[in-house]
């Protein structure tokens, strides 16, 4: 019996759906900010940047699901090219998010050090009132979703535990969520906007490392397919 035939499809589908919901929730924080009349920075960068990691997790799950819908000979040919395209897009996202977060972090630190009017401007821009309660609730729900999806994947097929890349990517995603939550809670409320940006940069670095690894392997796969 092949791995696909022994796959518990309902559990795998549950894992995929939950992962997609988690990703949409992370992206929704950034999308909802303008609708609420606030800048993205004022509602947090850490949570939206998690999408750079979890986007890779969702894409990996979709690649695993592709043979369930399409013939393996087709998915085998396009997998390398699809990974290359997605990796390039995510790398651009990491670069853009990293540059923007560094710029804003330098601005906020400069304002806090520019006494006496800098902190006033910092507060007037909304950065002194970071929504820590809403962020903590969101992070808790995201962590729950990630744990549920991870458990469903393992129960869908125990051989997923042998996929070291998948397990390490899941572990990195969970670690990144913990880092964001920890940095939100380690300082007084008016400084959380600063530590949130630090968390965002850490998440971007973690995501960029995984993107580069995927990019290298996808280039090798494309070269082998063409040769």
Gist of the model:
With 227 residues, the chain is mainly α. The chain has one domain.
Beta-strand fraction estimate: under 5%
How confident is the prediction overall: mean pLDDT? Answer: 87
Compute the CA-based radius of gyration. 20 Å
Assembly category: single chain
Total beta strand runs: 0
Major beta sheet, specifics? none
Bin the helical content: over 70%
SS field, number of helical segments: 8
How far apart the termini lie comes to: 32 Å
Give the total of domains.
1
Give the H and E element order.
Answer: HHHHHHHH
Structural class comes to mainly alpha
Spans of at least 5 consecutive residues with low confidence: none
Overall, the morphology is elongated
Task: Summarize the topology.
Blueprint: H1 9-35, H2 40-43, H3 46-69, H4 72-113, H5 117-124, H6 132-156, H7 164-185, H8 192-226
Helix pairs in contact: 1-3, 1-6, 3-4, 3-7, 3-8, 4-5, 4-8, 6-7, 7-8
């Amino acid at each position: 019996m092949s791995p696909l035939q022994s796959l518990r499809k309902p559990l795998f589908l549950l894992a995929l759906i939950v992962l997609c919901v988690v990703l949409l929730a992370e992206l929704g924080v950034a999308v909802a900010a303008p609708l609420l009349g606030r800048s993205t920075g004022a509602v947090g960068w850490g949570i939206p940047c998690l999408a750079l990691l979890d986007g890779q997790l969702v894409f990996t799950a979709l690649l695993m699901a592709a043979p369930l819908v399409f013939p393996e000979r087709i998915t085998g040919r396009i997998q390398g090219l699809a990974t290359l395209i997605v990796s390039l897009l995510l790398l651009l996202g990491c670069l853009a998010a990293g540059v923007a977060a560094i710029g804003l972090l330098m601005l906020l630190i400069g304002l806090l050090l520019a006494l006496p009017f800098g902190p006033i401007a910092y507060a007037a821009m909304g950065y002194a009132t970071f929504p820590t309660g809403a962020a903590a609730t969101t992070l808790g729900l995201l962590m729950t979703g990630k744990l549920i999806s991870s458990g469903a994947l393992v129960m869908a097929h125990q051989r997923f535990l042998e996929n070291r890349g998948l397990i390490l990517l899941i572990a990195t995603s969970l670690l990144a969520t913990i880092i964001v939550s920890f940095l939100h809670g380690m300082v007084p409320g008016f400084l959380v906007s600063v530590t949130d940006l630090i968390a965002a940069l850490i998440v971007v670095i973690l995501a960029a490392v995984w993107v580069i690894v995927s990019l290298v392997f996808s280039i090798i796969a494309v070269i082998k397919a063409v040769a």
